[in-house]
Design a protein that fits this description.
This protein is an alpha/beta fold. The chain is built from 7 helices and 11 strands.
Length: 250
């Protein structure tokens, strides 16, 4: 398989979650400005570190330079909760970022969670296909420029949870997942969709991430969903010193 996986990923260790957010904000701006052919397509994640990242992207120093008009914003996953629920990823991004910057409303693609989950997943895949310009993923033509990911204490990422059928999905870009160890049915990008990317970036902060990061990095436990993330392009772990404490020193 072309590209990279978790065992060959770059690891960048920074001081803390604030440093991760600052680094990611500058890097995202650079990536967006460098992209000249077609839209800049990103998949956002939820969580405290991304929230701080979104706040930084909304500050004038970056927001006034960011090419919002050609940025297409998607989401890695979403819970079936009301749109004003604090755990709704779209609502968090709207509050921290989208309501403060001139991104066209048509460029923001929230995951629908009002209908029947498999139908909602199919609708979201259609939106992705519309921006991509084709109905099947083509090697060498990434769907996403950047996919942002986190990692849960059970090794899940996006809403790719252990033991769930979505982990076996080979064709669909978007699927449903109802975890057996967490609340709410969810929509999630699948492994094939995430693989079709120029950059995948895990952002991990805190010592609570340390053990799982070390296990995923070794790649020796096939039950951990994060260990199966691949990309056509570059895979990077942006981690703070606390999350990196169990990694072997280079």
């Amino acid at each position: 398989m072309s590209g990279h996986d978790v065992k060959t990923a770059n690891i960048v260790v920074l001081k803390d979650g604030e440093a991760i957010a600052q680094h990611m904000a500058q890097w995202l701006l650079e990536q967006a400005l460098e992209k000249k052919d077609g839209p800049f397509v990103v998949a956002l994640s939820g969580g405290s570190t991304p929230k701080r990242l979104f706040q930084l992207l909304a500050e004038p120093a970056i927001a006034e330079r960011f090419p919002w008009d050609r940025t297409q914003i998607f989401y890695g996953d979403e819970r079936y909760v009301p749109i004003d629920d604090p755990s709704n990823n779209y609502a968090m991004s709207r509050e921290a970022l989208l309501s403060h910057v001139p991104v066209p409303a048509a460029n923001v693609h929230r995951m629908p969670t009002e209908g029947e989950p498999s139908s909602d997943a199919a609708r979201y895949q259609k939106e992705l296909q519309g921006v991509y310009g084709q109905d099947t993923l083509q090697p060498g033509k990434p769907l996403f420029d950047v996919v942002m990911l986190g990692m849960g204490p059970d090794g899940h990422t996006a809403s790719l949870f252990p033991r769930q059928p979505v982990l076996q999905e080979k064709k669909l870009w978007v699927s449903t997942c109802t975890p057996d160890n967490a609340p709410h049915t969810r929509l999630t990008l699948t492994y094939p969709a995430i693989h079709s990317s120029r950059h995948v970036v895990f952002m991990l902060a805190g010592d609570g991430k340390a053990e799982m990061l070390a296990r995923v990095r070794r790649g020796d436990d096939a039950s951990l969903p994060s260990s199966h993330i691949t990309t056509e392009g570059d895979l990077t772990f942006l981690v703070d010193e606390a999350a990196a404490k169990d990694l072997p020193s280079c």
